[in-house]
Amino acid sequence: MALVRRRSIFRLYCFSISVFACLRIFINCEPDPAPPSLTPINRDLYHSSGDLMEQISNLVHRHPDKLTTETIKTGNKGYNAELNVVTYCRNRKDGDDRTKFRILLSFGQHGRELITSELALRILSILSEEQFLSNMDPTSSNSVLDKLVIKVVPMENMNGRKLVEDGDLCERRNGRGVDLNRNWSVDWGKKEKDYDPHEENPGTAPFSEPESQMMRKLAISFDPHIWVNVHSGMEALFMPYDHKNTTPDGLPSERMRRLLEELNKVHCQKRCMIGSGGGSVGYLAHGTATDYMFDVVRVPMAFTFEIYGDAETSSKDCFKMFNPVDHATFNRVLNDWSAAFFAIFRMAPHQLDEIQAKGSLSGADKGISIDEYLDGYLIERTQRYEKKKEVLDFGMQEIRTYFRLFLLSSVLLMFMFCSRISKNKYSRPIASVMSP
Ligand SMILES: [Zn+2]
């Protein structure tokens, strides 16, 4: 996100540098100074990816009554990726209870947005009751949390994150240069006028990337009621759609907007931008995870949160632009957004009651396996092709009918033309006889 602003700032930056360089040459000054220094990763505040995952693994081992973890691995064409998924469920044997409210949260889909994975760790620490939010009553919050199953993906793009840690501080794509938030199938591959492959490369096909394939499987099997894709680069609370400048119609849209307005008021001090990703951010994004979750997985509430951005920073200085660099801001961001997520956890069961009262989208009604999904998809695709074939056949029949009519009318015209000529030929002498 925040691509357009980043690009325009970058263009302005390049332009200013060139003008400045030209002026220097013109007035024959000393050689160009060194480029402005870029802010390095603040290792006092941020964990390395290895350390962060180890912290999470230790947390899971200390709280086996609440947390479990699994590692999924897959790969193709010599590229391998793995996904760590942490499941929070206060009574572990209820982990597969389909009557509970299910929440799926993903962090670190873009490599350079380190702060998001720190937020994942903070949320898991609070869920384990090793850290606490101010103004949080543990008893009432436990009764709320009893009704939930929360799955957290702390670092979706581990390979991309490693590139950032190795010094490529502006990298947002995965380990082979694909933007994981453009690799999903809804409106995949469409390119805007200012398309930049260094930022938004959608891959060779929808779900070409192992990371997206694993996330899709996870989402379809878990079948969440809420999905949040957590990013940084600005402060915003987005709902579908990213690929068009509108929000969905009716109740789902209303329900999502109400939740976001409440979060903005209480936890974002009304600073956050709200609305459809495509309508609010200034550019359309095609093939995003949130659009897929809403349109295909049919998650009733699907969001993208942007938790921090430094609008004053040069777009080249990526670490500073996407991540807080001082202790106070770092803690403020983690506290504010942990509180926002716990507000979602608190409001979620009420949303579930509302959804179940409407008799739709309950776990039992909605749960499908990936095989069922793929079967459904293939059937739908076959039907779609058959429908296209039908339309084509109908069109051909129409063309044939029109062609026959055209031939018939041509023959009729020819006949009329010929009969007219022959009539004139025979009537002319009579006319001359009649003339004076
Ligand atoms: Zn992002």
From TrEMBL:
InterPro entries: At5g42320_M14_CPD (IPR034269), Peptidase_M14 (IPR000834). PROSITE patterns: PEPTIDASE_M14, PROKAR_LIPOPROTEIN. Its cofactor is Zn(2+). Residues 191-210 are annotated as: Disordered. Residues 191-201 have a biased composition (Basic and acidic residues). Residues 45-328 form the Peptidase M14 domain. The chain crosses the membrane at residues 401-418. The active site is at E306. Keywords: Membrane, Signal, Transmembrane, Transmembrane helix. CDD domains: M14-CPA-like. Residues 1-29 form the signal peptide. Pfam families: Peptidase_M14. Belongs to the peptidase M14 family. This is Peptidase M14 domain-containing protein.
